[in-house]
Each structure stands twice: as structure tokens, then as C-alpha cells.
Amino acid sequence: GAVVSQHPSRVICKSGTSVKIECRSLDFQATTMFWYRQFPKQSLMLMATSNEGSKATYEQGVEKDKFLINHASLTLSTLTVTSAHPEDSSFYICSAYSGIDSYEQYFGPGTRLTVT
Amino acid sequence: GNSVTQMEGPVTLSEEAFLTINCTYTATGYPSLFWYVQYPGEGLQLLLKATKADDKGSNKGFEATYRKETTSFHLEKGSVQVSDSAVYFCALSEDNQGGKLIFGQGTELSVKP
Questions:
Q1: End-to-end CA distance of chain B
Q2: At B80, is the secondary structure helix, strand, or coil?
Q3: What is the rounded distance in angstroms from the CA atom of residue B92 to the CA atom of residue B97?
Q4: Rounded Cα–Cα distance for residues B68 and B102 (Å)
Q5: Cα–Cα distance between A26 and A109 in angstroms, integer?
Q6: Using only C-alpha atoms, what is the Rg of chain A?
Q7: Which of B4, B45, B98 sits opposite A103 (nearest CB)?
Q8: DSSP state of B31
Q9: Residue B16 C-alpha from the chain's centroid
Q10: CA-to-CA distance for A105 and A101, rounded, in angstroms?
Q11: Rounded-to-integer distance, Cα A98 and Cα A76, Å
Q12: Do B46 and A105 touch (CB under 8 A)?
């Protein structure tokens, strides 16, 4: 199946700094990428939908100025957590959707963010 | 709004036991339904799907039937293996094409030899 990578897999940063997480589709073009947040023992919560070349669509309650999403190409989307705080510590997961093989999103392995 | 509810885990079974993981949903319209599996250290993978009422999705010995009357999509397998140990997520698609997913909370399955 299609492969989606995330980088870094783990990051620790200090409160007040910004962190960028990359999501790449390695062997297909993703018209749409999704960003999720997962708390321990909880479900994945959709944060935003990212379409190549256009602004991301954020879910209710997600601060777009805090979680900046850029989908500059059909194989790369980035999530930047700006002015991170300890409550932003979480597991961030991206997925990519080609829209061709309908119904299937391909998920990255996730990025563990810890803000100290 | 739309939502998905799964049975709580962890579920611990012996090898070759029968598995059922319950999943019910609340949705307007007719969503598509999915089961995703997350093996340790890996990303979520689509296990099976059903796009309309009475459809049965199946893969790797797992099955789930889209029951509109009970708004359920329970996952079953007749004989589990140690390699099935993972976290299983039930999900529905709000746009009916798999694009925007609402997930249940996940059920951890541990299969002992």
C-alpha cells in the first residue's frame, strides 16, 4: 500500500518555541491531507483538512493561528505548532488521501510532541 | 453531530478465541463505515469498510456488517492470532467517500499464546 511518512517521530521543545512537523506521501500524490491529534487512550481528533494549494479548513475549536498548516505540494504538508505550551503535548498524526482509490486514507506513523 | 462509540478495552483473548469488538454510530444521512487497525509503532491501516446498509466488509479473517437498523458495525473474527494484537478503531466518513473521518476511541486487543 501507499506510504506516508512523518518527521520527526519525536520532538521535545521548550514552552514558547515553535515546532514544525512534516507529512509526506512517498509514492503517490495526495490531493488532501488531514491532521489529527490523539490523546493517550483516546480517539483521533480531526484538527484540519489540508488541500494542496489552498488554505486549510480547521475544525471547530482548533486555533488556526496556533496550528499553522501548509500544503505546498501534492506530496508534502506541514503542521507548525506556534508558541507551544505544555497543553499542546500530544501525538499528532497525518493522513493522505489521493481521492483516486476512493475511501482509503493512508496514515503516517505519528509524531510525539512534548513541550516542557 | 456525528459520533462513533466503541467498547472499551483492553480486550485480552487467548489464541484461537472468537473476537467481537462492538461499534455503534450516530450520524445524519448514510455514512460509510470503516475499521482501522494500528499495530505497535505503526500508522493506522484500513482493515475493512462498508459503504451502505447490509454491506459486509471483510479482510484477513475479520468481518463487519453495516447494520442500519441498529446503527452498528461490530468487528468479528472467528479465531484470533497473536499477530492480531493491536488497537482497532471504528470510524465513519462524514463525506461518504472516506475523506473526513470520525473515529471511535479505539479498542486495544491483546492476544496471548
A1: 41
A2: coil
A3: 10
A4: 17
A5: 13
A6: 13
A7: B98
A8: -
A9: 19
A10: 9
A11: 13
A12: yes
Interface of B with A (CB under 8 A): 4, 32, 34, 36, 41-46, 49, 51, 89, 93, 97-106
What pLDDT does A5 receive? Answer: 94
The Cα–Cα gap between A59 and B103 comes to 14
Task: Find out whether A57 and B95 touch, Cβ atoms under 8 Å.
Answer: no
pLDDT < 70 regions, chain A: 1, 99-103
Cell numbers for B48:
475493512
- CA–CA dist A99, A31 (Å, integer): 7
Label residues B2-13 b or e (16+ Cβ within 10 Å = b): eebbbbebebeb
Place B98 in a pLDDT band, splitting at 50, 70 and 90. low
CA distance A50 to A35: 8
Which amino acid, residue B98?
A: G
**What confidence tens digit (pLDDT) does each residue in B33-87 have?**
999 999 987 888 999 999 899 999 999 999 999 999 999 999 999 999 999 999 9
* DSSP assigned state of B51: -
Nearest chain B residue to A97 by CA: give it. Answer: B99
B32/A13 Cα distance (integer angstroms): 39
